[in-house]
Amino acid sequence: MRVGICCFPSFGGSGVVASELALALAESGDEVHVVSSARPPRLVEAPGVHHHPVDGSGILEYGLFDHPPYTLALANRLAQVARDRLLDLIHVHYAAPHAVAALLAREMLAHNASGPRTCPVVTTVHGTDVTLVGAHPNYSDIVGWALRGSDCVTVPSYALQQEVAERFALDAVEVIPNFVPVAQDPESQALAQASGAENMRAGCRPESGWCDPRPPANQSLRRSAGAPMEPGWRDPHPPANQSVRPSAGAPMAGLRTRSQRSSAPCGAPDGVGPGTAGPSRSGMQIVHVSNFRPVKRVADVVAAFALVRRELPAWLCLVGDGPGRPAAESQCRELGIADDVSFVGNQARVEPILERSDLFLSASETESFGLASLEALACGVPVVATRTGGVPEVVCHDRNGLLSPVGDVEALAGSCIALLADPARREAFARDGRRWARSRFDRDAIVARYREIYRATLTSGGASAP
Ligand code: GMT
After folding, report:
1. Taking the model in full, what pTM does it have?
2. Residues 300 and 409: beta-carbon distance below 8 Å
3. Same domain, residue pair 420 and 459
């Protein structure tokens, strides 16, 4: 197949998933053309993968526009690439502006001067394109139009499927979870192969024996808001006693520290980068990865860490960058924990940092999926996170992570302390998380699902069929 993929060239999950999908499709013989404003950080050079940059700014010199009309430039580029490279379909990640531009391109191709061409559009929505952009009065109608006009729409979680249905009256939306890059070690590969085949048969639904994270109708929005579940809803990950915290000064002997997983800390306040041997540090490492936008509630991460730090020797490694970073830096200084926190900025690959970490901490307000949590689980790092959106579909409470309500900083801190102080439990969580991530979210099984969707869309002609 010849597939066009359009995404943001960001460190965020949608750009990562789009890039990893492009690489996986090309690895098994498809020709992939990635169209984006710049090369996505995860899109390494590989046979069969072509990158087509889009520059919307060139027109500004004429003084006509206040802002570069990027959506038009993107539609133009998508149509050109589809026509010149004979694309079978375009798969866009994030509805606005990508799905809008792709629908324009599809229409342009249908009226192509040298003869009409059919090029269906598959749209994967990732979360804030629905919950934030799609909820904004300036964009809600066009996002709804782009989704209803797409030939196929996919989402990474059942929680987001329900949001899309409720906001845009769109029912035929496929859940295709995000995935972890291919497993490297033989044990994980064997495991992934075995359960990947099972996932395929089950249509990527949770296998029997695993907890089913799908909420019954009308409950995912309540879950997003952190509200209690209604009777009858079987929480797949029932809460354990999360407020149990060891008393100050509890014996630390026997804790498996990050330094036993690897000798180097994630990064250091003095600017020593991740993966390099920084100053030697004792204690355990908590890691957080995000784009520092308000939805990530980084202030809660820092506040929870400050509570943990009172009880245990620990470090916090903050990976990523974004608008909330200066405030987080000030907060660390105000709380007197600046020396225990490293800000290491955006990283093309987070595994080297995760592998040096003892715990992953996330405090998001909403999260359609939580790819960073999945990457942590895949690296054998237990997750402490907020119970919101699709997170309970990724993190199994009390099996490979601990979930608590959004905004409950004490509960987040209590969960961190409970796990850091209990090496046996942490080890069990790490083992389970690794297996779960690499079986349920196996790359090859999930890429096969995308290929099935592509074939079905091409066969049916999708929404653009005459
Ligand atoms: O909206 C964002 O925060 C960024 C967005 C992205 O472009 O990566 O993240 C969303 O997509 C990821 C990949 O599917 C998911 O893992 C994230 O949970 C989701 N973010 C939100 O829903 C806030």
Report:
1. 0.82
2. yes
3. no
